[in-house]
Amino acid sequence: MQGTIEAIERLDYAQVDKIKVKVRGGLVSVEIPVKVLEAAGWTPKKGDKVLLELTNSKPDKLDQWDIVMGGYVYLKKEEENKIYASLGGLKLEVVSEKLYPKFKVDEKVYILIKSGVA
């Protein structure tokens, strides 16, 4: 799915950027270490277009993506259509009526991001 970066927050105490991406029918917020962004050669900016995929199966063709992270869903809030996942201690939050039913607590989740999408 295509999205647009809505906000970026630097969490200086952890050298992590919290990136909020507006997607059709929802919002995805993910914490990514600055070192990972630098290694990917990506400096995210508000308004940037990205390609984003959320899946619970191990992705193929990883070289097509700039950022690939995996973790586990640890909480779902039905009244908000909100999913929380831990990506090795980094937080992933998804608010989406469409995506909410696709993930279960304790289930593996992967987020894949491609920057520079026109």
What does it look like?
The protein is mainly β. The protein has a single domain, classed as OB fold (Dihydrolipoamide Acetyltransferase, E2P) (Beta Barrel), CATH 2.40.50. The protein is 5% helix and 55% strand. It has one helix spanning 34-39; strands at residues 2-11, 16-23, 26-33, 49-55, 67-77, 82-87, 90-96, 108-115. It has an 8-stranded antiparallel beta barrel. Strand 6 (82-87) and strand 7 form a beta hairpin. The longest helix has 6 residues, at 34-39. The radius of gyration is 13 Å and the shape is globular.
**Based on DSSP secondary structure assignment, what is the total number of beta strands?**
8
Low-confidence stretches: none
Structural domain count: 1
Radius of gyration: 13 Å
Q: What is the quaternary state of this protein?
A: single chain
SS-based structural class? Answer: mainly beta
Mean pLDDT comes to 94
CATH architecture descriptor: Beta Barrel
